[in-house]
UniProtKB/TrEMBL annotation:
Domain FERM: 86-310
Ranges of Low complexity composition bias in the record: 67-78
Pfam family, any one: FERM_M
SMART domains: B41 (SM00295)
Domain of life the protein comes from: Eukaryota
Species name: Ilyodon furcidens (goldbreast splitfin)
PROSITE patterns attached to this UniProt entry: FERM_1 (PS00660), FERM_2 (PS00661), FERM_3 (PS50057)
Annotated region (Disordered), positions in chain: 1-78
Protein's recorded name: FERM domain-containing protein
Gene3D superfamilies: 1.20.80.10, Phosphatidylinositol 3-kinase Catalytic Subunit, Chain A, domain 1
SUPFAM superfamilies: Second domain of FERM, Ubiquitin-like
Amino acid sequence: MTTESGADSEAKQPQANKEAEKGKTKAAADPASPQKQPEQLPAAVGHSTPARKEQEQQEEDQESHRSSTSRLSRSPLRGVKKVKMMQCKIALLDGSDYTVNVEKRGKGHVLFDKVCEHLNLLEKDYFGITYRDVENQKNWLDPSKELKKQIRTGPWNFAFNVKFYPPDPSQLSEDITRYYLCLQLRDDVVSGRLPCSFATHTLLGSYTVQSELGDYDPEELGSDYISEIRFAPNQTKELEEKVMELHKTYKGMTPAEAEIHFLENAKKLSMYGVDLHHAKVTSYNEVVTLSTFSHHKIFTFVQHDGQLVK
């Protein structure tokens, strides 16, 4: 085994140092050398820590929740029941019908308010809505109860009527209120619910004609012009002639004035404001008659031996 002498070793050492310095200078001059650059990782890989993944998962969950909420807001909830509407037909005092849709679970005052709005009626307290039950008995619609609990079977047919007759019709504020009260009383007279004498039929009938037709005009009205107007249950030719005689004397009287005169005479009748209907009382075991009077009070009359006993 040969060994280098001390002189040879000392001669090679400066040469090795120079080669090492040249290598450093070359490495500095070539920074892109793959052996000298640290490994460049993708940004996503360089930051894929557990905390980062958890944050991304939370953001995905929140986005999914917002998307689900948006879909629910655009679609109806499955648990909500569909509102069922019912068609109501109301017979009005002028002979026409009014049809309106109301919610089946709505209360009676909803229907009543719709009718009053349709009629432009402000003084509502004197009026109400009636319906017929399975026994064809008239009942007043309760404004505080649901409609479906009052109308059990059959079509939803109603009638708009006067419920409380004012003791002094002249105190009414609105002309339209007096007009509907007149219509109710005319129906009461024609149907026989409000009995009248021949003279009273003549007087009330003449005011009815004046309100409907205005002043008598022989050129426009024929000799038999009132035959189509009903103002008595048993309307005779003699009664019509008497009515025409009075009507001819009302020249210049407005329809509103004629209605006031009609009400002033109708309120004097003994059965004014009395609404008769039948009911059973067990103590008598017979059909009796109940009546509602105009002063917001209820009186009971029992039919006994052909007489009404209060």
